[in-house]
Design brief:
Elements lengths: L11 E6 L5 E4 L1 H7 L3 H4 L21 E9 L5 E11 L8 E7 L11 H7 L5 E6 L4 E4 L1 H7 L11 H4 L3 H16 L3 E7 L8 E11 L5 E10 L1 H19 L6 H12 L6 E6 L17 E10 L14 E4 L4 H8 L3 E4 L6 H5 L2 H10 L3 E9 L2 E10 L8 H38 L10 E8 L7 E9 L5 E11 L1 H19 L4 H18 L11 E9 L4 E7 L5 E3 L6 E2 L18 E4 L5 E5 L11 H12 L6 H12 L9 E8 L7 E6 L6 H14 L6 H18 L4 E7 L3 E8 L19 H8 L2 E6 L4 E8 L5
Antiparallel strand pairs: 1-2, 1-5, 3-4, 4-5, 6-7, 6-10, 8-9, 9-10, 11-12, 11-16, 12-13, 14-15, 15-16, 17-26, 18-19, 19-20, 20-21, 21-24, 22-23, 22-25, 25-26, 27-28, 28-29, 29-31, 30-31
C-alpha cells in the first residue's frame, strides 16, 4: 500500500469485504489491531476473523453498526465496535462493504481537546470537528443523532467511513477545500436522520479552525435543519410548475394528463384522473352523486414506466363502490386520505379482490383522493398513490394537492366548455355546408373541410351551384373570425350567394351585391362598416361546358390554381378585388378558356398560411401537390392536405374545392337563327323535331315542340331581333333556350277565364322541369329544362 493512501492509517482499522465475503483490502490500523499482515488475510473469508462464539452479523442493504468479538493473530480475542456500510460498485459488479473501527479508546475526555471544546460545547446546533487528516475529533449529541451512530465510537473516522451516500463524499471533498484555502464553505443536503420517517433538508457550514499562529488545524461542521423552508419552497415550485404546465391546450384529456405528469414524482408515485360523464353529449356531469360512482379514466401517470399500477386503461369506465376513497371524496365534496396500515382501506379492499392484489403487488401504502371541482360543478376525482415514497400523506400534502387540482379543474372545465361550444359550432358549420355536391355534366367535384386545430371553427365555406344552360357556379369563401357568430354569418352569405346565383348574375355583379350585404351586416353588428366588423373574402366562378369558358371574380380571396391535362399547376392571374364589406369598391371579372379535363383548385387561406412559414412556401407546396391531379379528385384532396398542412394541423379553417371540367361535345348542341316572322314558327318546330330524332330523343318531341313554339312566338311578339334558338342535351336533360336583344324579362301570371293570352309561360312551367330567364350583355335568354328520364 502507498504511504499516502487515505485508506491506510494507524488511527482507524479499515477492511474492505468483497461481495463473496472475502477480504479485499487490509489497512495498517487493522494490522495493529489484530496483528495480521495484509498478505495473510487478503483473499480469506472475513468470517475467519470472528471468535468461535461470535455470530456473523446480518448485513442490511446499506449500513450496519455494532459490537463484534474478533480473534487476534496471537490467539487472544478483542471486543470492538464496528461500522460497516455498503459501497456502490465502480463497474458492473455487486459492490463491496467497508468495515471500520476507531483504534482510540472510547473513554477519552473530548473536552480536553480545545478544538472540540470550542466547537462542540459552544455550538447551539449539531456540530462535529475534523482535524487536518480529516479524522473526526468529536461530535455533540445532536450530530450523533443526525448520523445515527453513538458519539463515543465516532472518534477517528473519516466522512466516507460513516456512510457511502454521495453526501459523505461531497462533504470530504469540501473539507479538503476548506483546509487548503482557509475559507468557509456552505453546502445543502437532503437526507434522513435515524428514526425519522421523512427526509430532512440540512444546511451545513464548514468553518476553518486555526491556532494562535493562524494555521488551519481543523474544520468545524455545523448543521442547521431548514426542512420546513425547503418543503415550502418545493410546494411553491410545484404550484408554479402546475400553473405553467397545466392547461396549455383546450383539450380535456391533455389537460388531465398534464395534471398527472406534474404531480409525479414530486407529490405521488402514481396519479390517476377520472371524470364524470354527462347524461347526454355536451351536458353537465350527473348530480347529485350516489355510490357506486361510474367515471371514465382520462389520464394516469406513474414513476414506473408503462404505468403498471393503473387499474384501468385510458378511456375505460371505472366503477368505485361506496367504500372506495374515490367515491367517498366525490360524494363528500372534500379530500380523503387513507393508508393501508391504519385499516382505512379495509372496507374497500374487502369487496374488491383485484384492487387488493394490485395494492399488495406494488406496495401501495397511502392514497389521497381529491375531487375536481370548478365553478360549483364536480367534474371528477384525482387519486394520488404512494409506494416508493415511504412517508404517508400529510396535511401539507393535502393542501398542495388541492391547490394543484383546483387549478387543473378550472382548466379542465374551460376545456370542457370550449369542447362543447366547439362541437356546437362545428355541428352548425357542417349543417350549413352542402352535405353532398350536385352531379353535373360540366364538372366533377370533390371537397374537404377541416376546422382549425386550436383557434376553433370559423366561417369557411364552399359550394357548387348548377346554373341554366348546363353551366355551373363554384364558390369558396372565408368569414373573418371564429365561433358561432362566424358560422352563422357564413350561413347567411352562402344562402345569399345561392339566391344571387339563381338569377344568373355575372361574377363581378354577384360580388357587388354580396359586398352590400356584408356592409349591412357590419352595420347591424354595431361595428364600423369601413373597418369590416363583419368581413369576408370570396371567389366566384362560372363554367360553361358549351363554350368551355370560365368567368371568375374574387373579393380579397387567394387566386385559384389551374392544372391543365398533363401540364404543371399554376396560379391564375386574376384581379384581386377588395374584401367583402369595404363598400363601394368595384370588382372585376376575368374570362379564360379551359381545356377538357382541366382541374381548378379553390381554397381558403388556412390551407397555405401557417405560423412560422411564409405563405409563398405554402403556395409552392400546393402547386407541387396538385401537379399530379390526373387521378381521382378525392385522392388528390387527401394528398394536398397531407402535403401542405403542417404536422401540428391547421391553424385556421381549411376549405378545399377541386373541380375537373368536362366540355360538352358540339354534337350535343344545336343552334338556329330565327327570323322575326310568326309564319316561320311552324318550320322551326319541324327542324326541332328532326334534330331530336337525330339525337334519338323522339319521346320528348311533343313536349319540346310545344315549349319551343311558345318561347319562339313570345320572342317574335315581344322581343327584339336578332332571335336565336339553342337546344342542349346530355344523358338526362334537354334544354331549350331562346335569346333576343330585348332586356325586358317575361313573368309568369295566371290568366283570367275570358283572357285570350297569358297562358303560354304557365304551360311552359307545367311541361318543364324548371324554367327561367337570365340577362346577357346582348339582351336576355329564356330557358327551360325537360327531364329525359324519370327521377326515382
Amino acid at each position: 500500500m502507498r504511504p499516502d493512501d487515505p485508506f491506510d492509517d494507524a488511527v482507524t482499522a479499515r477492511a474492505v469485504i468483497a461481495a463473496d465475503g472475502t477480504l479485499a483490502r487490509w489497512s495498517e490500523g487493522a494490522r495493529l489491531l489484530l496483528g495480521y499482515p495484509a498478505e495473510e488475510v487478503v483473499g480469506r473469508p472475513a468470517a475467519d476473523l470472528l471468535a468461535d462464539s461470535a455470530v456473523p452479523p446480518r448485513l442490511p442493504a446499506t449500513r450496519w453498526s455494532g459490537t463484534l468479538v474478533l480473534r487476534r493473530r496471537d490467539g487472544e480475542t478483542v471486543t470492538v465496535w464496528m461500522l460497516a456500510h455498503h459501497r456502490q460498485p465502480s463497474g458492473n459488479g455487486p459492490g463491496e462493504w467497508l468495515a471500520v473501527t476507531p483504534m482510540e479508546t472510547s473513554d477519552q475526555e473530548l473536552p480536553d481537546d480545545p478544538l472540540v471544546r470550542a466547537a462542540v460545547f459552544q455550538s447551539p446546533c449539531a456540530a462535529m470537528v475534523f482535524d487536518e487528516a480529516l479524522r473526526l475529533h468529536g461530535v455533540n449529541d445532536a450530530m450523533a443523532y443526525l448520523l445515527g451512530l453513538p458519539a463515543a465510537h465516532l472518534r477517528g473516522l473519516r466522512p466516507t467511513d460513516v456512510g457511502s451516500r454521495p453526501q459523505h463524499a461531497e462533504l470530504e471533498r469540501h473539507l479538503r477545500q476548506v483546509l487548503r484555502t482557509g475559507r468557509p464553505y456552505e453546502m445543502q443536503t437532503y437526507m434522513k436522520a435515524t428514526g425519522e420517517s421523512r427526509a430532512h433538508a440540512w444546511l451545513a457550514r464548514l468553518a476553518p479552525l486555526t491556532d494562535r499562529t493562524r494555521r488551519v488545524r481543523g474544520v468545524c461542521v455545523t448543521v442547521h435543519d431548514f426542512t420546513e423552508q425547503y418543503r415550502a419552497r418545493e410546494r411553491l415550485q410545484l404550484v408554479n410548475e402546475a400553473s405553467m404546465r397545466i392547461g396549455t391546450t383546450l383539450d380535456v384529456t391533455r389537460t388531465a394528463q398534464e395534471l398527472a405528469e406534474v404531480c409525479v414524482p414530486a407529490l405521488a408515485d402514481f396519479v390517476s384522473v377520472d371524470l364524470l360523464e354527462p347524461d347526454e353529449p355536451g351536458g353537465e356531469p350527473v348530480h347529485p352523486l350516489t355510490a357506486p360512482v361510474s367515471l371514465r379514466r382520462v389520464a394516469h401517470q406513474s414513476r414506473t414506466p408503462g404505468n403498471p399500477e393503473a387499474s384501468a386503461a385510458l378511456g375505460e369506465v371505472v366503477v368505485y363502490p361506496a367504500a372506495a376513497p374515490h367515491a367517498d371524496s366525490l360524494i363528500a365534496g372534500h379530500s380523503i386520505m387513507a393508508s393501508v396500515s391504519s385499516g382505512e382501506l379495509d372496507p374497500w379492499l374487502a369487496v374488491d379482490d383485484a384492487r387488493t392484489r394490485q395494492i399488495l403487488e406494488h406496495g401501495v401504502h397511502a392514497i389521497l383522493s381529491v375531487p375536481l371541482q370548478a365553478r360549483g360543478t364536480t367534474l371528477g376525482v384525482a387519486a394520488f398513490s404512494r409506494f416508493s415514497h415511504p412517508e404517508a400523506f400529510t396535511h401539507d400534502d393535502v393542501l398542495l394537492a388541492e391547490e394543484v387540482t383546483a387549478r387543473a379543474a378550472v382548466c379542465i372545465d374551460n376545456a370542457r366548455r370550449y369542447s362543447r361550444e366547439r362541437e356546437t359550432t362545428l355541428a352548425l358549420q357542417r349543417s350549413l355546408l352542402p352535405r353532398t355536391l350536385p352531379r353535373t355534366a360540366a364538372v366533377e367535384a370533390a371537397t374537404r373541410y377541416l376546422p382549425a386545430a386550436r383557434s376553433g371553427v370559423g366561417g369557411d365555406w364552399f359550394d357548387v351551384i348548377p346554373l341554366s344552360g348546363m353551366r355551373v357556379a363554384m364558390v369558396v369563401g372565408d368569414v373573418v373570425g371564429h365561433g358561432i357568430q362566424a358560422s352563422a354569418t357564413m350561413g347567411r352569405l352562402r344562402t345569399a350567394v345561392r339566391t344571387l346565383a339563381d338569377i344568373d348574375l355575372a361574377p363581378d355583379e354577384l360580388l357587388t351585391h354580396l359586398d352590400d350585404l356584408v356592409h349591412h351586416l357590419s352595420q347591424e353588428s354595431g361595428g364600423d362598416p369601413g373597418h369590416g366588423e363583419v368581413g369576408a373574402t370570396c371567389l366566384y366562378a362560372v363554367y360553361d361546358p358549351v363554350s368551355r369558358r370560365c368567368t371568375l371574380a374574387r373579393a380579397g380571396h387567394p387566386a385559384p390554381v389551374m392544372i391543365p391535362p398533363g401540364g404543371a399547376a399554376r396560379h391564375l392571374d386574376l384581379p384581386s378585388g377588395p374584401p367583402l364589406g369595404m363598400g363601394g369598391l368595384p370588382f372585376e371579372s376575368a374570362e379564360l378558356e379551359l381545356p377538357d379535363e382541366a382541374v381548378l383548385a379553390f381554397y381558403t387561406d388556412g390551407l397555405v398560411e401557417s405560423r412560422g412559414r411564409d405563405s409563398e412556401v405554402g403556395h409552392a407546396l400546393l402547386r407541387e401537390a396538385l401537379s399530379h391531379a390526373a387521378g381521382p379528385l378525392d385522392e388528390t384532396c387527401d394528398r394536398v392536405l397531407q402535403t401542405v398542412l403542417s404536422p401540428g394541423g391547421a391553424t385556421d379553417d381549411v376549405a378545399l374545392l377541386l373541380a375537373r371540367t368536362h366540355g360538352l361535345p358540339a354534337a350535343q348542341v344545336a343552334t338556329w337563327d330565327i327570323p322575326a316572322d310568326p309564319a316561320l314558327v311552324a318550320p322551326i318546330r319541324k327542324q326541332v323535331v328532326d334534330q331530336l330524332g337525330t339525337w334519338a330523343l323522339t319521346e320528348a318531341s311533343f313536349t319540346a315542340e310545344l315549349v319551343v313554339s311558345e318561347l319562339v312566338t313570345n320572342a317574335i311578339r315581344y322581343g327584339a331581333p336578332p332571335i336565336r334558338l339553342r337546344l342542349i342535351h346530355d344523358a338526362s336533360t334537354l334544354i331549350c333556350e331562346v335569346s333576343d336583344t330585348s332586356h325586358t324579362a317575361p313573368h309568369l301570371r295566371r290568366a283570367k277565364t275570358w283572357d285570350e293570352g297569358g297562358r303560354g309561360l304557365l304551360l311552359v312551367a307545367q311541361l318543364t322541369q324548371r324554367w327561367g330567364s337570365r340577362h346577357t350583355a346582348e339582351g336576355k335568354t329564356i330557358w327551360s329544362e325537360l327531364a329525359l328520364v324519370d327521377e326515382m
